[in-house]
Amino acid sequence: MATLAPFVFICLWSGAFIAVRAGLPDVSPLFFLAVRFAIAGSLLALIVSLWQPRRWRELRGKWAVTALCGVLMNGGYLSAAYLAMTEITGATMALVGSLQPILVAVASGPLLGDRFRPVQWLGFALGTGGVALVAGVNVLALETGPGMAWAVASVSCMVVGTLIFSRYSRGVPAAHANALQLLAAAVFCWVLTLTFEESHVAWTPASIGTLLYLIFGVSLGGMGLYLFMLNSGTAGKVAANFYLTPGLTAVLGFVLLGETLPATALAGFAMAMLGLWLVQGRARRA
């Protein structure tokens, strides 16, 4: 499980971007997130309550902090990302998102006692550079303004949520924690929807297919694996898996949607893979 989890996580997370391109235009984003998290959280809570009800006790004393991580890593991260992409391109968002692993690695030293070797820091740098190539973004000509602010807020939510979970909720059962976090994110997104959004819904085959994939593939599968990896690994190394999602998304877009795949994107994907391989070396825990 520990060996396969990163590969399955990367595939599921990358597929989410393809699904969103296909179905999200039919539904307003905050409403979509609220429905997604409510259904996913309710299903998972029911399943784990029937399957391993006694393991809820392992969250004792950690309910609030685990729920807060869910609000940050699910609700805050995705809500801010959607708002960002109303102002900036997806490529710019991908580049800002690539800062997440190195920010987690830097902060995990003083907060979690993680120590990385110089070759691993080189891996983080190569991963970020690889995403820049895949995204085709000129760093010197990045867009600024509200969109960039939302992009930074999105990444900050994931970084802070990852660090808090690794520091205070490490060791809790991943499925039970995921159920709690999804329900907390659902409440957060419903509040945002009712407060700020004029919702519109058109339940087309594309939007329904997107919703099902994001519920089962990403919220239940991807986030469950992310929490599992945080329980069993170093936060910075786990976050580094995000380096491969832009490149794999570009490949999937080429195969499934007929999108163009420039040579620079393939070179960036290869660079990101090399970076991830270097990061996955043994880290020292103080």
Secondary structure layout:
Elements: H1 5-23, H2 29-51, H3 63-84, H4 90-97, H5 99-112, E1 114-115, H6 118-135, H7 146-168, H8 174-196, H9 205-232, H10 235-239, H11 245-257, H12 263-279, E2 284-285
Antiparallel strand pairs: 1-2
Helix pairs in contact: 1-9, 1-11, 2-3, 2-8, 2-9, 3-7, 3-8, 4-6, 4-7, 5-7, 6-12, 8-9, 11-12
Describe the structure.
With 286 residues, this protein is an all-alpha fold. 74% of the residues lie in helices and 1% in strands. It has a two-stranded antiparallel ribbon with strand order 1-2. 49% of the residues are buried.
Global mean pLDDT = 88
Question: In oligomeric terms, what are we looking at?
Answer: single chain
Low-confidence stretches: none
- N/C terminus separation: 26 Å
Number of strands: 2
Strand content: under 5%
Total helices: the number is 12
**Neighbour order of strands in the largest sheet:** 1-2
Q: Structurally, how many domains make up the residues?
A: 1
* Class from helix and strand fractions: mainly alpha
| Helical residues, percent | over 70%
Largest sheet: 2 strands, antiparallel
| Rg calculated over all Cα atoms | 18 Å
Please state the overall shape, judged from the principal axes of the Cα atoms: globular
Comma- or semicolon-separated keywords:
mainly alpha; two-stranded antiparallel sheet; globular; 286 residues; 12 helices
